[in-house]
Write a structure and sequence with these properties.
Layout (H helix, E strand, L loop, with lengths): L1 E8 L4 E4 L4 E3 L8 E6 L11 E9 L2 H21 L10 E2 L5 H11 L2 E4 L1 E8 L4 E4 L7 E4 H15 L4 H13 L5 H13 L9 H16 L4 H13 L5 H12 L4 E2 L2 E2 H16 L10 H21 L9 E2 L1
Parallel strand pairs: 2-10, 7-9
Antiparallel strand pairs: 1-5, 1-8, 3-4, 4-5, 6-8, 10-13, 11-12
């Protein structure tokens, strides 16, 4: 008998409002149990910045792992729908539990003890197990009922997400844990870019690129220079990311404005700033990156909603905890 355990972290500014330490999650599309637990049996869910989603039991370890991976995508999607991000970890152990330490804690608790994992862990649930982890302002809350409803919707949708969309959601979630406005801004741009698929330029442009490639082939330029120019000319066959993002934003968010600009103009401004920040041609202080990152967060949420769901997700009603 196996279960999956998915430990995730909430942003410091966000909590799930529930006085329970353990909340059964009722999902009509699942045949096994699902529970949301606070870290520590004496803590309420609303008081924790780290929570655990536990699913099972399953007869096979492989079944538990597939279900856990599905739940991980569903949680990422749930965070996005709630206009925030969950840190789902890299499925790595939190701290180091030595053999001697394990024996000590097992004697103390009278149960099997193993190291906890930040992310997904599949374990043998045939006997009681304790999980041990060593852990060296204003908060926005979402009620547990809303969290449960959204998670149920996202469990249904998680299986249909493409790899591009899953990566975009991961980056969007990561932006909520960025330690600086610069990092948050650049991560949000990356989340948008992750959804892009190269689009061909008009035939006339491709013919011109082919002509230059033919001339390049006949030239006496050295091999390294030829390779560099060839890569550049090959790139001319596709729309630039800047233009692709501008066109998509204008099409998907035609009637929305951000910082007083049309969606296409706003993306262009942000992408140009992203390029200057990465190439060191502008100082962070030149722009109010905190304000701009807040607007870009709204834009990214709307953009990804349209790309993934075909509609803009409405903002949640928030309460202060």
């Amino acid at each position: 008998m196996y279960k999956f355990r998915l430990r995730f972290r909430l942003p410091q500014s966000f909590r799930i409002s529930s006085k329970d330490a353990l909340r059964p999650i009722a999902l009509p599309q699942t045949t096994t149990g699902l529970q949301l637990r606070a870290i520590g049996s004496d803590h309420a869910i609303s008081g924790c910045d780290e929570l655990v989603l536990v699913g099972g039991p399953y007869n096979l370890e492989s079944e538990a792992r597939v279900a856990g991976e599905h739940a991980k995508v569903a949680l990422s999607l749930t965070a996005f729908r709630l206009r925030t991000g969950f840190d789902l970890g890299a499925d790595k152990t939190i701290g180091v539990l030595t053999k001697a330490g394990r024996k000590h804690f097992e004697m103390q608790t009278g149960t099997r003890v193993q190291s906890d994992v930040h992310g997904l862990l599949v374990y043998d649930a045939s006997e009681d197990t304790k999980f041990l982890a060593f852990k060296a302002g204003l908060q926005v809350g979402v009620h547990i009922d809303r969290f449960e409803t959204t998670l149920g919707e996202c469990f249904r949708q998680a299986g249909s997400l493409s790899n591009r969309h899953t990566e975009a959601l991961r980056l969007y979630a990561f932006s909520h844990f960025a330690e600086s406005a610069r990092t948050r801004f650049l991560t949000l741009i990356s989340a948008i870019e992750a959804t892009f698929e190269p689009e061909e330029r008009p035939t006339s442009v491709k013919r011109l690129a082919n002509l230059y490639l033919w001339i390049l082939k006949l030239s006496f330029i050295n091999a390294d220079e030829k390779a560099a120019i060839r890569n550049y000319l090959d790139g001319l066959r596709k729309k630039s990311i800047r233009r692709l993002g501008r066109d998509l934003a204008g099409r998907l968010l035609a009637f929305k404005q951000y910082s007083g600009m049309t969606s296409g103009a706003f993306f262009t401004q942000c992408y140009d700033l992203r390029s200057r920040l990465l190439h060191g041609t502008v100082e962070d202080e030149t722009y109010d990156l905190v304000t701009l990152a807040n607007s870009l967060d709204e834009f990214t949420s709307d953009f990804l909603s349209q790309r993934i769901f075909g509609s803009v997700t409405s903002a949640q009603s928030a309460s202060i905890e």
